[in-house]
Design brief:
single chain, alpha+beta, two-stranded antiparallel sheet, 10 helices
Length: 278
C-alpha cells in the first residue's frame, strides 16, 4: 500500500520532480509463484533479469531449471530485449507490469560468437544436471556442428557426446563429416572422440574415414589429430585388418621421422653418447 501510494504521489507531482518506481510481476508459463519487484523506469530489462534470478536463487526455485541465458521476457505478446528500457512504450503508466519468463534456445543462434559459446556451455552444464533435457539439447545442437566458429563446433560435439544415446547414428554421421572436412585440429579431435565412443566396432565406413584422416594428419592438422586418430582406430577397429594396417603404417612413418632427426649430416648417429658408423 505504501509503495502504491508513493507511486501515485510521484505521478501527481510535476514532471521531472520524481521518477516513480515501476512494479513488475514476473511469472513463468504456469503462472505460479510470481516474483514481485520494483525498478525505476529508466532501467533496462537486463537489470530486471538479474534481480529476478537473484530472487530465484534465494528461493531455490526448482521450476526454473534452465540456465539464465535461455530465458526471455515477454510483455503482452512481445519479446523484449535485455537492452530495452523498462518504461518504454507506456509501460511506466501501468500500476503493475506483467512479465512472462519463457525458455528460448535462440541464444544458441545469436550473431555474437561469445553469446553462442556461453549458451552452449550453459546447455552442457544443464544436461549433466538433468538428463531429462538430453533429447531437447540434441535437437538444439543441430545447427552448431557447422558453425563458423571452431570453438563452437568443438563444444557442440562435446555436448552431443555427453547427451547422445548409445550408438547414436546421427551423431556418428556428424562426426564423420567433421573428420572429413573440418580444417581445425581441435574440432577433428572432438569428432574422433565421438566416433570412438559411438561408432559400431568394425564399421568399414568409419574406419576408412579415420584412415584418410590419419594419412593427411601430419600435413593438415598436426600430431594431436594423429594420436587421436590412432586411438580411435583402436577403439573402432577392434582387430580389423584395415585398422591394423593403418596403425602399422603410421608407426613405421613415425619411426623413420625419428631416425632422420637423430642422424647428423656426417652419417653418424649418437647412441648413448657413442658414435655409431653406418
Amino acid at each position: 500500500c505504501f509503495a502504491s501510494a508513493r507511486t501515485h504521489a510521484c505521478r501527481a507531482a510535476s514532471a521531472g520532480e520524481c521518477k516513480a518506481a515501476m512494479r513488475f510481476s514476473v511469472r513463468g508459463l504456469s503462472g505460479d509463484n510470481p516474483v514481485e519487484l520494483e525498478l525505476p523506469p529508466d532501467g533496462i530489462f537486463a537489470e530486471l533479469r538479474a534481480k529476478v534470478f537473484d530472487e530465484l536463487k534465494e528461493r531455490s526455485a526448482s521450476q526454473w531449471c534452465f540456465p539464465q541465458v535461455f530465458y526471455q521476457f515477454v510483455v503482452g505478446d512481445k519479446v523484449v530485449a535485455d537492452t530495452e528500457r523498462l518504461g518504454d512504450e507506456g509501460r511506466d503508466a501501468e500500476d503493475v507490469v506483467g512479465v512472462t519468463l519463457v525458455v528460448s534456445l535462440s541464444r544458441l543462434e545469436d550473431a555474437d560468437d561469445e553469446v553462442r559459446f556461453t549458451a552452449l556451455q550453459a546447455l552442457d552444464s544443464l544436461t549433466k544436471e538433468d538428463p531429462a533435457t538430453n533429447e531437447s539439447a540434441l535437437c538444439a545442437l543441430g545447427s552448431f556442428f557447422g558453425d563458423e566458429s571452431a570453438q563452437i563446433r568443438r563444444l557442440a560435439l562435446k555436448v552431443a557426446s555427453e547427451v547422445a544415446g548409445e550408438r547414436d547414428v546421427h551423431l556418428v554421421e556428424v562426426a564423420l563429416e567433421r573428420v572429413r572436412v573440418d580444417p581445425e585440429a581441435l574440432v577433428v579431435c572432438a569428432a574422433l572422440e565421438a566416433l570412438a565412443k559411438f561408432a559400431a566396432p568394425g564399421d568399414d565406413c568409419v574406419i576408412d574415414a579415420i584412415r584418410g584422416c590419419l594419412a593427411q594428419a601430419a600435413s593438415k592438422h598436426g600430431e594431436d589429430v594423429t594420436f587421436a586418430a590412432v586411438r580411435t582406430l583402436g577403439a573402432v577397429g577392434r582387430g580389423s585388418a584395415k585398422s591394423v594396417e593403418a596403425s602399422r603404417t603410421r608407426c613405421s612413418r613415425c619411426r623413420r621421422r625419428t631416425w632422420r632427426r637423430m642422424r647428423p649430416r656426417n652419417g653418424q648417429v649418437s647412441a648413448g653418447g657413442s658414435g655409431v658408423e653406418h
